[in-house]
Amino acid sequence: MTSDGFHLDVGDGHAIWVAPWGNPDGVPVVFLHGGPGSGCAPSARGLFDAARCRVIFIDQRGAGRSLPARARHANTTQHLIEDIERVRQYLKIERWLVVGGSWGATLGLAYAQAHPSRVTGLGLRAVFLGTRAELVWALDTALAAFHPALHQALYAPLTEDERRAPLTAIWQRILDPDPAVHTATVRAFYRAERALSELHPAQPGPDTDHLPASPFLEAHYFLNDCFLPPDSLLQSAASLAGIPGILVQARLDLLCPPVMSHRLAALWPDSEIRMVEAAGHSVGHEQVFAALRQAVSDLTA
């Protein structure tokens, strides 16, 4: 174990990075990053009161400092749920608050529904329910409407046959081992997703030899419908009864629009939606960050 974290062998050739932080005697919290594949950013510590909380940051399989990097074998939602439980048991934590945004919200919901007795509450930002319909909305409908040039760049290479199922084709191209096939699509996908994440997206920098890691794991998960049965997170919402939840939702989130938070809250009476106006998907937006920090504070009071 190092001063800021350690690798935990979870089997299948994976060792996930686990980083406890804050007060060892504080309220236990597990933080689930987005992506899939993004890894935990140091800035996430700002969501928590170090004196009040014992926060466990987990880099999921193939992400962040977990090993092997970008590995997709034995990497499914069920594997990640089992990893979270393995970390909880290893650290001898009885119950904990689950915090996450976007894909982290998806995984948090899936974990809580699988292990409701281990969850004291859920602080979720930008609810994503892991469905193909949400991905079609974000990466086709919203992208074409709000960033048509980026939509054109992402879809232009597709053949006539591929256009019959364009998102499937895009993810298959990303996962193609041939750099001549995947490189341009990875860059276009990454730029499109970044643009949808921010109200004022920065201009993309020049292409480099380095490719971002997250599109590969996202393509792996999205091609497989996030390894979840259709609409399973809504259909299993009743299992969250008695678990308090706060859903932080940005009004202008183009990736995870407010309708998904409302659909979940309608089936989960113990939850409340806290809307942030004039903000988009990114947790880096000052008001979104502050709202999630307040949600964590309220759930750990």
From TrEMBL:
Reaction catalysis annotation: Release of N-terminal proline from a peptide
Keywords: Aminopeptidase, Cytoplasm, Hydrolase, Protease
InterPro entries (UniProt xref): AB_hydrolase_1, AB_hydrolase_fold, Peptidase_S33, Pro_iminopeptidase
Domain of life: Bacteria
SUPFAM superfamilies documented for this protein: alpha/beta-Hydrolases
Location(s), subcellular: Cytoplasm
Main location: cytoplasm
Residue ranges of domain AB hydrolase-1 in the record: 28-283
Keyword Protease: yes
EC code(s) of this entry: 3.4.11.5
GO molecular function terms attached to this record: hydrolase activity
Pfam families: Abhydrolase_1 (PF00561)
Record-stated family: Belongs to the peptidase S33 family.
Record's protein name: Proline iminopeptidase
Organism of derivation: Hoeflea ulvae
